[in-house]
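User: Please fill in residues for this 308-position structure.
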């Protein structure tokens, strides 16, 4: 923990002190906090919550002949100051890689290929209704090598290899293929298929699609997963919709998770974002979870996000 804080301090000092020699380094981040009423089955309580707030450093350097080195060091910072044992700084994506006409190769800690295929379909990403709450597959994996191909006629391939890192573990893989623009700015359609093999104890398969119809952004994911040790399977579907009027974006999302032998789960979320500026927004959401074998959960929040 102390080493992580020292590393961040050294990185900031290096960027600010030697900017002449490191002009390509960008400092970026996001502060996202909400005041919310949470009910996790034992009664409601009020909390201040940091929703994946982060600080990062990234850059690139031209090596000539169409080759460049890229690098990133990103950290999650819990701005609510409520982390256990004072551990309010955690690693996110941190890697170094090479990019060229062949695509890109990245070494370090990175989102798996399957996670990267999601695009912008999960409209409540980083909040309580993030799809990782009911499904496996939202993995940020260490000891990984990721390859991303060049774009071919709007198609791109991504492959992640996760090294076993010890004698008792096994290698794992994640692969995905996508088509179109995930932001739906260059095209009106985005689609992807992806799978994990033995990633953190699960095999996962997903199909993802999003489009725009009469100004409404629609998204859907079909998801299956299997626990490698137990063979227990889960199937799920998620659909989302977002519509922007002037400065307000209204959004809704439904996610299901149905396990073999019962234990069905469902999450329903509605919310709205009010754009104060290009980098700043107010937001509110309500999420409710209907669980078969666990206590039902409800979350009502209002918050502020600023990106820099």
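Assistant: Residues filled in for all 308 positions:
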């Amino acid at each position: 923990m102390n080493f992580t804080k020292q590393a961040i301090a050294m990185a900031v000092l290096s960027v600010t002190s030697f900017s002449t020699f490191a002009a390509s380094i960008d400092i970026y981040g996001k502060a996202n906090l909400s005041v919310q009423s949470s009910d996790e089955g034992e009664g409601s309580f009020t909390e201040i919550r940091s929703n994946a707030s982060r600080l990062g450093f990234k850059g690139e350097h031209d090596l000539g002949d169409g080759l460049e080195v890229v690098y990133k060091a990103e950290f999650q910072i819990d701005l609510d100051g409520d982390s256990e044992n004072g551990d309010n700084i955690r690693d996110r994506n941190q890697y170094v890689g090479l990019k060229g006409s062949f695509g890109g190769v990245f070494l370090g800690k990175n989102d798996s290929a399957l996670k990267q295929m999601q695009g912008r379909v999960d409209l409540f990403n980083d909040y309580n209704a993030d799809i990782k709450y009911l499904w496996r597959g939202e993995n940020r994996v260490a000891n990984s090598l990721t390859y991303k191909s060049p774009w071919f006629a709007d198609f791109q391939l991504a492959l992640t290899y996760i090294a076993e890192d010890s004698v008792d573990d096994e290698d794992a893989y994640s692969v995905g293929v996508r088509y179109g623009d995930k932001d739906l700015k260059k095209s009106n359609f985005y689609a992807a298929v992806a799978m994990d093999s033995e990633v953190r104890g699960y095999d996962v398969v997903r199909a993802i699609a999003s489009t725009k119809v009469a100004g409404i952004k629609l998204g859907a994911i079909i998801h299956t997963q299997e626990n490698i040790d137990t063979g227990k399977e889960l199937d799920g579907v998620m659909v989302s919709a977002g519509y922007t009027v002037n400065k307000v974006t209204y959004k809704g999302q439904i996610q299901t998770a149905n396990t073999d032998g019962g234990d069905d789960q469902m999450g329903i979320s509605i919310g709205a974002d009010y754009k104060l500026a290009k980098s700043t927004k107010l937001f509110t959401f309500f999420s409710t979870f209907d669980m078969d074998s666990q206590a039902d959960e409800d979350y009502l929040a209002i918050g502020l996000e600023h990106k820099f």
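For context: The first strand starts at residue 26 and ends at 39.
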